[in-house]
Structures are given as structure tokens and as C-alpha cells.
Amino acid sequence: MGVHLVGGGGGRAAFAPFTAEARRVAAARGSAVPRVAVVTVREDADPGHAADLVAALTADGTIELDARVATVGESDLVDPAVFGDVDAIVIGGGLTPAYHAALEGCYDVIRAAVGAGTPYLGFSAGAMIAAERAILGGWRIGGVVVAPEETAEDLDEITVVPGIGLVDVSIDVHVAQWGTLGRLIAATESGAIDGGLGIDEGTALIADAEGLRIAGSGSVWRVFGGADGGVIVSSDRAAL
Fold first, then answer.
1. Where are the domains of the chain?
2. Which of 48-57's residues contact partners 24+ apart within 8 Å by CB, and which partners?
3. How far apart are CA 234 and CA 240, in angstroms?
4. Which CATH architecture has domain 3-237?
5. What is the 3-state secondary structure (H, E, C) of the chain?
6. How far apart are CA 27 and CA 115, in angstroms?
7. Quick one: 10 exposed, middle or buried, by C-beta within 10 A (0-12, 13-18, 19+)?
8. How far is residue 39's CA from residue 42's CA, in Å, rounded to a whole number?
9. In sequence order, what are the residues at sequence separation of 6 or more whose Cβ sits closer than 8 angstroms to the Cβ of residue 85?
10. How far, in whole angstroms, is CA 157 from its chain's centroid?
11. How far apart are the C-alpha atoms of 79 and 138, rounded to whole Å?
12. Which pLDDT score is estimated for 171?
């Protein structure tokens, strides 16, 4: 199985490894068309984002998907049955706290499916909640500003909760584009998280049996605690 975490934005290169894996899973059951659960949580259950995700997954015209779309409103819950009998799972983007609330009752089902070999793609919010310790948002720690307010996800203080548990480090997204690296640094330095990875838009961090690798056009930022109590920050890009 592969866990594909996309930091938002577009770019076919960030989605291609996931669709290739979904096609391999489908082929193993004798089908050329992967069955993919596409779940989005949007204001007024707007289906537009789900359609955009399906378009991004099939943008090069080489793959057809049996997209099983489930879109719920920001105060609604996702039915765990959505994740039954599919070859792959896609969780979209939007308000991260709403995704956490809507999907928390599905976390065991998603984790079991991925453990059994179902690839997972989390886009933006879907990437953030994939972690064991999920950052939901926030822009201050102890009242001190550490990130732009517009990245706060309707939260004031940085908020960390148990996530799905598909990766063992916390995740932030839109890093270069929205300036969320400061949130990862401050959350690590404060002890709210043990360190994390930040993913740029148009970029996928892929965790599978081969380890970690990067696809797409941007960088993945690594933030971990240093021996002197500070933090160490580095970045990696996909091999060209």
C-alpha cells in the first residue's frame, strides 16, 4: 500500500503515482478501471471540489476511474460504508477541523483498508488528518503569532488531535505558498508535536514499502527537534 500526501494545488505529477498504484490494485482483481472512493467535506456539500479531484487524477487521459464520490456538508458525518469494496481512497481538501469531525468515525475503517493494501491519497486537509498527531490549524501559541492568520482554519491556538494514523509524523500543507512552515517550527519547539513534514502545493510525499519519496514540482520540508532545544529545518525535492 502507499500513502500519498499532496500539499494542495495542481500538477499531474503529484497525482500520477497514486493513479498508477490504484490501477495496479484494480488489475490484481482483474479490472482495468479502479474503484476509487473520493470523499470531500465542503460548505453546503458543494460537489465541485470532488469533480476537480477526479479531473486531476485523470488529467493525462490515460486512466479511467470508477469514482465513488461522497460529499458532505461541514457539519455532517461521512458514512464508513463509503470505503467498502474500493481499490483506492481519496480524501480532499477544505476546512481541516471539519474533515476531522466528519471522518473521525471512519478512521478505523480507513486505517484497516490501507493496512490491507488500499492506497490512500490525502489532498491538503486529507494529508493533515492522515498523521498520528494531526495538526488541525491555528495561528498562535500562547497568544503569540506563529503563522499567517489566514492559514488558521478558523482556529486560534495551534490545535493537535489524534488523526487517522497512516504516518507517524505530523503534516502541514501549502507550505511555501501559505507560509505554514512557521506553524510546524513553533509546534515542534513548543512540544505540541514531535516534529513534522510540510508539503508544498503541487507536491506529493509518498510513504510505501520502499520508504519515503517525493513527486511533483515543490519541496517537502522536514522540521525536527535539535539537541540544544531548538529545531532543525531542511528540505528535499523530487529527483528530476
1. 3-237
2. 49/92, 49/93, 49/94, 50/92, 53/90, 53/92, 53/123, 56/10, 56/12, 56/15, 57/15, 57/18, 57/19, 57/90
3. 19
4. 3-Layer(aba) Sandwich (3.40)
5. CCEEEECCCCCHHHHHHHHHHHHHHHHHCCCCCCEEEEEEECHHHCCHHHHHHHHHHCCCCCCCCEEEEEEECCCCCCCHHHHCCCCEEEECCCCHHHHHHHHHHHHHHHHHHHHCCCCEEEECHHHHCCECEEEEECCEECCEECCCHHHCCCCCECEEEECCCCECCEEEECHHHHCCHHHHHHHHHHCCCCCEEEECCCEEEEEECCEEEEEECCEEEEEEECCCCCEEEEEEECCC
6. 19
7. middle
8. 10
9. 35
10. 21
11. 28
12. 98
Q: According to the model, what pLDDT value does residue 239 have?
A: 64
Whole-structure pTM value? 0.95
pLDDT for 240 equals 47
Q: Which regions in the chain score pLDDT beneath 50? A: 240
| CA–CA distance, 105 with 102 (Å, rounded to integer) | 7
Residue carrying the nine cell digits 510505501? 208
Q: How far is CA 147 from CA 43, 120, 141, in A?
A: 24, 28, 10
Give me 165's grid cell.
494514523
Terminal CA-CA length for the chain: 24
User: What are the grid coordinates assigned to 51, written together?
Assistant: 469533480
Length of the chain as a residue count: 240
